[in-house]
Amino acid sequence: MLNQTKNNALSEFLRKTPQSKEFSTEAKQVMPGGVTANIKAFDPYPIIMDQGAGAYLYDIDGNKYIDYLLSYGALMLGHGPPAVVNAIQSQVEDDGTFLFGTPHRLETEMGKKIRQHYPSMERIRYTNSGTEATLLAIRMAHAYTGKHKIAKFEGHYHGGYDQVLLSVNPSVDNAGPVDEPTSVIESKGVDPYHQEHTIVLPFNNLDATAEILRKKKDDIAAVILEPIQSGFIPADHFFMEGLRTITEELGILLIFDEVKTGFRIGLGGAQAVYGISPDLTTLGKVIGGGFPVGIVGGKQDVLMTSAPNSNSDVFDSSQSKTSQAKDVLFHSGTYNGHPTILAAGLATINVLEQEIDHVLTTTRQLKKGISELFAKHGISMQTIGLGSIFNVVITDKEKIWNHRELQQANFSMRKQLDFLLLNEGIYTKPLNRYSLATVHGDKEVQDTLAAYDKALSKLT
User: Fold this and answer.
1) Does domain 100-337 have CATH number 2.30.40.10?
2) Is 162 a catalytic residue?
3) Strand order in the sheet with 198-201
């Protein structure tokens, strides 16, 4: 029955998206695999979008979708929000340029707004992406502690660079012991050096994590984690409190990667939910309102490792004989603190300050409705997540605590369901999480639940 449903769903998908198929074939003549980011690809081919408006996407075949991918959570106001469009236009018109290449007022204005919601971020630095933010945070940890290994958790993603591209989604067969995971390389081209210098920890397992950290405390500069793994598997409160205690005890910095959870779990992110102040925090996605940006913030004495002095500019050849660049943490970038992006980000936060409760309420409504429909159709599942993010996990387990337990879920059924939903006009990349925006309302929720009821009827 499931195989027949799968075949029918795929046939319908192919029938509805012939131009996406044609365009994907053409794109492969330009880009490897037809995409410029691996995450955008899925079989048999990705849907090629043509327009976005509010809560909706429209593909090149004219199909309309309620969008729950929202650029992997970046668009918390939806597509083309007037507040962001107006902020961008005003910034360019008022300032006369969209790039100064110098300090400007919006850098400080945005920084004050960030500190208002994230008090742990005593000082901040801007980057151009969440990936750059985690990269800088790790460098700061090395510079501040003088130690040159880091620890990350199995199943957690912090960017596409060698130092952290390990044990993001390892197979259980290769992942090693549950209490002491193996560091598994996740990409071609990653130097095996990083297997020795990036220690992998078991998420939501405090005893085993503490034992590893104590054993390697003289080498580890920082522990970096997604306080909510993949944006939807929350850390246990006891685990998080214990992790904060053990890292402080051992002189290891604690880095919260809140690129996914910042402003999505609530205005203060996951750290407000847990009541914990990390040493460093990284933000991205939502704070740019759909534009590329990242922020690193944290304790003043850690951030000050990057403060320049008159002889610390690695690019200034006139100072070459007296250069002290090696004594200062290097961080630079022409586009850091881009004024147009910061204007968009400020507009986004201003809207969220008024409408975050609506987003959280709508998310709870959708999760409840989906859970009730699965129960109606006799399928065991969970809608896992906090705030405005969740995932639909088809499983008999009462609780999902980490990557290995998630691997026991029924991904085959979930993927079939996702294609049935695509055919009903509900968009997220197959097997991906759901993110909601201010533009999702009662109509979108009811239309989504109707689509789920139809899809689940076909599935069962």
Assistant:
1) no
2) no
3) 123-127, 294-298, 280-284, 253-257, 220-225, 149-153, 198-201
